[in-house]
Amino acid sequence: MKNLISLKLSVLLPLIFLAFGCAAMLPPSTGDLIRNDAALLQQADNFYRAHRYNEALATYEQYLQTSPQGVQWQHAWLRTAELYGIKGDWLQARARYERILAVPVDSGLALKARYGVGQAQYKLGNFLEAERILENLTASNLSGDLRFKTNALLTELSLQSRNFPQACSRLLLVEKDLPFGEEEWYQDLKSRLLERATAPELEKLADLYRDTPLTPALLLQLIRLETQAGRPEKAEEWLATLQRRFPQSPEAVLAAKLSAPPTRTEAVGSTAAIGCLLPLSGEYAEVGHQVKNGLELAALQAHMSLAVEDCGSGADPTVAALEKLANDPKIVALIGFFPSAVAEAAAAAAQRLGVPLLALTQKKDVTQTGSFIFQDFLRPPLMLQALVSYTGSRMGWQRYAIICPDSKYGRTMARQFAEELNKHGMLLVSQVSYAEDGHNLAQAVQTLTTVNPGPDGRPSLDAVFIPDEDRAVAAVASVLASTSQFRMPLLGTNILHTPSALQHDARLDGIFFPDGFFAGDPDPAVRAFVLDYQQQFQQTPSYLAAQGYSSLRLAAEALQGSPGIGRGEFAQKLSQQLPPPGFTLFKSFNTVREAQLAIKILTIRGQEFQLAP
Question: Given this model, what pLDDT does residue 2 score?
Fold first, then answer.
């Protein structure tokens, strides 16, 4: 009996061990596969939400390879299409969207894919095909956000073809879905519609759309254009129309201020003076004193009188100071530095009082306040136009990428840089952003470094634009430098023109950026100004000091030979003024009285600033 039991055990034990061994070699169950795929997809979604797009794309692709018919394959496929679009590879994005539409899918997903194909066609320059796809899409039952994006992109296409009635019609549809969409995109479309249309075109639009949310803005723009063109009677007619049909609108209130006739047009005597509004106290005090130094040096050299008022940093004290200067009959014009939040109030007051104002501000469209308002300051469009023109014509570059902070400044500069590239016929290959605190900077750079690799594995780019402060740009440069196959020129903005930018070893060597003034410029006129300034104030002038100096010299030139000139005549003469002899930043005023400045392109070499070659 015992021998029988031993025999049975001798036979069973190997079978038991064999069974366990075979179990260990068996593939995981279907349930295990589903759990693994779900974890992989969750990880990809987490990367996507964290803007770690390169890692997200790789993980979605891994999911699709391991589970091509997984429960969420449609979601993963759509995400990869979106990510290829973010990376600037719109051919691949279009192919992915079309792959989704080639098989039966959920109707909501199909609508998103159809929008994606239309967006890709737009980005690839196939405008007619993009419009056909998007127009067909509007007949479907779209969600609010998708309806907003579809009509916004259709508005872009209408603006592209200068079909302003159609753009207006589509923009009204965008406005209806504003709760589901991006306010900034809507406002940008609205601004471009108003800016690009001529007065006759706006007049047709105002007649065609007589009672819509856009009509007051159309009428206000007509008032501005007719005023700027020197047709006050026509402007008054449009003002009456606006006030009659939309009396409670913000546009009617603003238009009344803009169209108010000047209250002072009398001539001034031979003791004509320039009034200066500067924030000599408060948060902008340092800026105000730098501008004041430049103004005083120019006034000293031109033997002119200055009347300086401290306007602080708020709208109310600024308007009070402006009214005080305007009531002085010797004051023929005003020069003032204003933060953007204050500029509009100052401009409205100067226009109402009929005193020419040379505004040192970056505030967009401030000169549209009226014919007495001039803008003489370094503005982003001027800088970026000069930077793109230099790198394109001098360096021969055509393909660019943008990596920017997710901040108001970063987004604004990135958008305007992209617009300049488009104007010059150059290509924006890719755009990525990183958190304002920089915590995901490495991931953003990694996404950038894998964009559209060429035959040698390097990204097919000519330069990367980084609109941020020197510390952040140096951090981006460090990450790029650690990627051996990714070395190319960097571009920045004028906020890099600070001493701290020279303290980053060689990380910023070779970067190009624009600015309005460079104290090290070997030009004889610049050298003479710098020496005079140093002798007077025992310091090197900044851009702000140079701008104050240039603006006062411009005003002095307009007064030259006209001691009894009136304020209205001075404004007319200033609008046609040529650059004064000697050092000046000024080149000319455009048709809306915005100064065109001589922009310098600078670089860093050997830890010092230099003019770009």
Answer: 40
pLDDT in tens, 477-492: 888 877 655 567 899 9
Amino acid at 456: D
Nearest CA to 532 out of 297, 288, 219 is that of: 297
Q: Which residues of 585-612 are buried (b: 16+ CB within 10 A; e: fewer)?
A: bbeebeebbbbebebbbbbbeeeebeeb
Question: Please, which residues bridge with residue 359 across strands?
Answer: 336, 375
The two structure tokens encoding residue 185: 């995109």
Angstrom distance (rounded) from CA 549 to CA 557: 12
Rounded-to-integer distance, Cα 354 and Cα 337, Å: 19
CA angle, residues 44, 407, 94, in degrees to nearest 5? 45
Q: How many CB atoms lie within 10 A of CB 188?
A: 15
Asked if 64 contacts 80 with a C-beta cutoff of 8 angstroms, the reply is: yes
Dihedral sign of CA atoms 524, 529, 532, 538 in order: negative
Give the distance from CA 354 to its chain's centroid. Answer: 33
For residue 257, report the phi and psi dihedrals to the nearest 5 degrees. Answer: -70, -40
Alpha carbon distance 388, 391 (integer Å): 5
Extended beta strands in 7-69, E state = none
Rounded Cα gap, residues 51 and 34, in angstroms: 26
3-state SS record for 127-159: HHHHHHHHHHHCCCCCCHHHHHHHHHHHHHHHH
Q: Is there a contact between 517 and 546 (Cβ–Cβ < 8 Å)?
A: yes
Cα 463 from Cα 457, distance rounded (Å): 16
Q: Report the DSSP beta bridge partners of residue 75.
A: none
The pTM of the full predicted model, rounded to 2 decimals, is 0.61
Q: What local confidence, expressed as pLDDT, does residue 483 receive?
A: 66
Nearest alpha-carbon partner for 90 in 58, 133, 114, 122 = 122
Burial of 469 (0-12, 13-18, 19+ CB in 10 A): middle
What does DSSP assign to residue 453? B
Q: Which residues contact 41 (CB under 8 A, 6 or more apart)?
A: 60, 63, 70, 72, 75, 76
Torsion sign across C-alpha atoms 474, 477, 481, 487:
negative
Helix axes 73-86, 53-66, angle to 10 degrees: 150
Q: Which residues pair with 408 in a beta bridge?
A: none
Six-digit token string for 451: 């964009």
- Residue 514's pLDDT is what? 96
Average pLDDT for runs of 10 along the chain of length 613: 40 39 38 60 82 82 78 82 83 89 85 92 88 93 92 90 90 89 80 82 86 86 75 84 85 65 40 88 90 93 90 90 93 94 92 95 91 94 94 90 90 91 87 82 74 59 92 88 72 94 88 95 92 89 96 92 82 89 91 92 92 91
Q: Cα-atom radius of gyration of the chain, to the nearest Å? A: 31
Tokens of 596: 């065109």
Residue 29 is given by DSSP the state P
Q: Of 600, 409, 407, which Cα lies nearest the Cα of 513? A: 600
pLDDT for 228: 63
Please give the structure tokens belonging to residue 75: 């979601």
